[in-house]
Amino acid sequence: MAETIKDILKEIHAGRIGESGLVRLLSLPTHDEFQPVFDESARICRKHFGDRVYVRGIVEFSNYCRKGCLYCGINKANRRVGRYRLTLEEIFNAAAFMKKQGVLTVVLQSGEDPGSDALVLDAVRRIKGELKMAVTLSVGERDSGGYREFLRAGADRYLLRIESTDPKLFKKLHPDDDLEYRTQCLYSLKKLGYEVGTGIMVGLPDQSLESIARDMLFFRELNPAMVGIGPFLPHQDTPLRGRKNSDIFLTLKTLALIRLLLPKSNLPATTAMGTIDPTGRQQALKIGANVIMPNFTPSKYRESYKLYDDKICVSEEYGKCASCTRGIARAAGKCIVRSKGYSKSK
Ligand code: SF4
To answer: Is 67 touching ligand 1 by the criterion CB < 6 Å?
Structure first.
């Protein structure tokens, strides 16, 4: 007899779920059919986080990148994007501004730009020393010596998305990268003591539901502190221009299942979710996300940090994102908390 949704949910809670059960849920075609899973993921999120939404403010401090990821608007082959790197002062001022707005965690994000490592070290030391904020780095692959240096400077967290654990798909999308090395990086970051964040894109060209299910099983094994899910959105200056956008429903289904597999991990309602659907972030917060990441990059640089087309919050006035974020949380029946939001998943 075919398993019911209730049976599959029980398997998830018992830690026995496999690929086929996850695929069965991912393939449910309508909201109504998936609703019991959304109800359960929302319940689990409330159980661990209540109404609380943590905020991490992003500063996109450099769009230089040595890699050529096929989906990415700032990949090294894109000659149409104006390259920039913020100064130490600009990074510090952005962090100080977000602290004034009540945001206690800064995410320093860039393309893979090892040329800025000295700047990153200085920025981390200064932000930790003078502002006492939590610092997350999202600057790509380095060897463990590099990760150790960032950690010694004071970094608390590291985001490195795996994007896909499907070897063929990973290779196709990342001509400069190696899946095994990316995986090793994640384990090495964990071993060093970082709160590690990772994530995937859903709805990529040639990505199967089986592949997404295997990504989720990988997350269960890695047990990261944070998992970010981005719907695939093409960028006009990349080889994937013209490919179909992902849809918000598949993105939300994936998020809900990850909440069930990793009840205590931080799951952001990502900017890409808000790009694909104007209410995407509210919907995500309702069914299992507990983090939101407003953009504090100085306005004049934002246009040059578009990883995909039509990215929202690009022309916003500097600092407007903080109030917008409060509105999104309220619309989801939740509230922003002034907290560094350290991981509960250890
Ligand atoms: S996804 Fe990251 S590493 Fe890849 S090209 Fe874009 S910025 Fe560079």
So the answer is: yes
